[in-house]
Amino acid sequence: MADDPTPAIRLEISEQDMRFTCVAGDDVEITLGTRRMGAGGFRRNPPAEIEIEEAIAVVEDALMPVLQKLPSPAVWRTRDEAARELAINALGFTPPGVATIDDVERLFNAMARASALGSWAGAVPLDARQAAYLLILRECLHHAGVRAIRIE
Predict the structure, then answer these.
(1) Using an 8 Å Cβ cutoff, are 58 and 52 in contact?
(2) Which residue ranges make up each domain of the chain?
(3) Between β-strands 8-13 and 75-78, what pairing exists: parallel, antiparallel or unpaired?
(4) pTM value?
(5) Over 60: is that where the pLDDT of 74 sits?
(6) Is residue 96 reached through a cis peptide bond, with omega within 30 degrees of 0 on the bond before it?
(7) Is the confidence at residue 1, as pLDDT, over 70?
(8) Which alpha helices (H) appear in the chain, and where do they start and end?
């Protein structure tokens, strides 16, 4: 059985930066993290609609030029504690496992509804760090056209 030739990318999102580690290439780093999204992360819980909109714009501006440097298609992986927490608390699995873009979009849409209501009622509550992580992860997968990420 031949090895899978698809490149692998490990995504790491911290409070201060984000790194894409390409197994067969160079690392790409962005100075953007869960506390470095514009005004320093989300200030409300759930985040206000304007905070989400502003964060999306900041993440997209930082992300778009970098995505062109990454191999595609690629298998994406993460070992981030925040991703593990989302898997356990909101996605219903204990890592290792796979979160699809649809899973991530469902969580993001629940966060957007909570934002509009000003309450986590009917949604899994996320703290500011988890909400910021979810937004960054969603933008990465969405704009890179990645269908799933393995959470280890």
Answers:
(1) no
(2) 8-151
(3) parallel
(4) 0.93
(5) yes
(6) yes
(7) no
(8) 49-67, 81-86, 101-117, 128-144
Amino acid making up residue 114:
A
Ramachandran region, residue 149 (left: φ > 0; alpha: ψ -120 to 50; beta: rest): beta
Is 120 exposed, middle or buried (CB count within 10 Å of its CB: 0-12, 13-18, 19+)?
A: middle
Indicate the fold that domain 8-151 takes in CATH: Nucleotidyltransferase; domain 5 (3.30.420)
Tokens in use for 76?
A: 């994406």
Q: Report d(CA 142, CA 54) in Å as an integer.
A: 17
Q: Which of 95, 97, 115, 109 is nearest to 138 (CA)?
A: 109
Give the whole-angstrom CA distance, residue 36 versus residue 127: 16
- Tally the residues of the chain: 152
**Distances in Å between the alpha carbon of 40 and those of 1, 33, 57, 63, 130?**
48, 9, 14, 17, 14
